[in-house]
Amino acid sequence: MNIAVLGCSGAMGGFFTRYFLRKGNKVIGIDPARARLRNKLFRYAGMDYDSIESVDAALVAVPMESTLDTIKTAMMHMKKGRVIIEISSLKKFLHDQLKMLEVGSFTIVSLHPLFGQSLKSPNDGTIAITPFKDKKSEVRTANMLFPDFRFRLISPSKHDEAMSLVISLTHAINVAYAKMLCSTKKPELLGLITPIAGTQFVISRAVLSQSPRLIAQLQCRNKYTAKTLNFFAKVVEEIADKARKGQEQDIEREIASLKDTSQDLLSYEAVYKAELWRIIHTMSKKLYNE
Prior knowledge:
Blueprint: E1 2-6, H1 11-22, E2 26-30, E3 42-44, E4 57-60, H2 67-77, E5 83-86, H3 92-99, E6 107-113, E7 126-129, H4 135-145, E8 150-153, H5 156-184, H6 195-208, H7 212-220, H8 225-244, H9 248-265, H10 268-273, H11 275-289
Parallel strand pairs: 1-2, 1-4, 2-3, 4-5, 5-6, 7-8
Antiparallel strand pairs: 6-7
């Protein structure tokens, strides 16, 4: 296949460019920043959108605020009936905007890769797919283009609601954790850190390595995030209030209850077997030993 990657020099754009090349596809890269890939199947085209006229599919991997305009531009230059894949982190607002366009015979495939560009094997990657117009056709197209990945089908609204928990809340917790550590400024802190605290420290560093703009957008542009963060803040305040009052037994009972409930969601053994957990645990042990 001939595939264009719009935003080929970015993190996820670069990841999927390399993925398509490994699958034997010809790839045209569009990006103001030059992509320095040495592969006979790859052609960097700068911002020459005329070069994508005959591609079979175009993957849009640009900053979230540019996604809609980039899709519009792609549709102006591609032949009718081709595939456009977008991989933005929020879906409901984008879907609403796309439905106001005349997409005609284009197949819009709306995906959210639930992993970063450092993913070693596609078999370890999960991609959320949020149907836009024709669920069966879009799922079939996604499986054809990305045969190595696992897919999870979810509506745009349910997707964004889930992202307020698994991304926005996770980011907020770890930004707050990092801020507290930085405000402490006590050199003896690392000498006393436990493996679990070290794991949290590593996760915070991982969150901070991501784009500050993207983190801020996921906090502010997801309509479910404020409600999620407010609920979390309420839970933290309830614990703080019990701590102030010395209500140890109340805290103990709540934790015991949560242990039973959380086992229904995901067992400790399942988490421990995950590759990411092993990596983080190893890193935290190294930090602890230092």
